[in-house]
Amino acid sequence: MRFIQLYHRGWDHHGNLKKDMTTASRLVDQGSAAQIKDLKQRGMLEDTLVVWGGEFGRTPMRENRGGQEMKFVGRDHNPGAFTVWMAGGGVKPGISYGATDELGWKAAEHPTYSYDFHATALHLLGIDHERLSFYHNGIERRLTDVHGEVVRGILRS
Fold first, then answer.
1. Can you tell me the distance from the alpha carbon of 82 to that of 113, in angstroms, rounded to the nearest whole number?
2. Side-chain half-sphere CA neighbours of 114 within 13 A
3. How many whole angstroms separate alpha carbon 110 and alpha carbon 115?
4. How far apart are CA 57 and CA 104, in angstroms?
5. How many secondary structure helices (H) and strands (E) does the chain include?
6. What global pTM score does this model have?
7. What are phi and psi of 135, to 5 degrees?
């Protein structure tokens, strides 16, 4: 298997949200779309898993630090709700899976945890997450610990 990782460092917006998100989005949107289009045109999308995501979501409300209103509008880290999109490699095209509550504070429909995401990505790569382990601190460990479940609702039939 071959892996390629592309990343953009400019997504940690705690201030000046409108300007920073506009700039960051402009830098990645066309490239992300072009990557999918190119893979599809070359007949490679079905055999290539594309994953686009971050390490956490954002709170739905304006951020305050130390009780002080910030000069620029920003949002803090939110591990209770985040977005990842996937394409190709056995993923159903054109679907959304899951949703947050009405505030965007936490997952409310199909909560999916990092262990589930890892189990699903490994499954799509042809790796059984329950058999993949590594030795760490004197014990065999799994990336998906004991919690991971493949998210069948996003898999192409």
1. 10
2. 10
3. 14
4. 10
5. 2, 10
6. 0.85
7. -90, 125
- What's the rounded Cα separation, in Å, for the pair 129 and 12? 30
CA distance 54 to 56: 6
Read off the pLDDT of each residue in 45-51 and give the average, rounded to a whole number.
93
Token readout for 66 is 């130390």
Q: Give the side-chain half-sphere CA count within 13 A for 149.
A: 9
- Asked whether the CA dihedral 98, 126, 148, 59 is positive or negative, the reply is negative
Which amino acid, one-letter code, is at 111? P
Tell whether the torsion through CA atoms of 77, 78, 79 and 83 is positive or negative. Answer: negative
Long-range CB contact pairs, 89-95, < 8 A, 24+: 89/45, 89/46, 89/47, 89/48, 89/49, 89/50, 89/124, 89/125, 90/46, 90/49, 90/124, 90/155, 90/156, 91/49, 91/124, 91/154, 91/155, 91/156, 92/154, 92/155, 92/156, 92/157, 93/156, 95/154
Read off the tokens for 137.
């601190």
**Which residue bears the tokens 């190119």?**
38
pLDDT at 2: 65
List, for residues 97-141, the tens digit of each pLDDT value.
999 999 999 999 999 999 999 999 999 999 999 999 999 999 999
Residue 132, token pair as written in the block:
């993949």
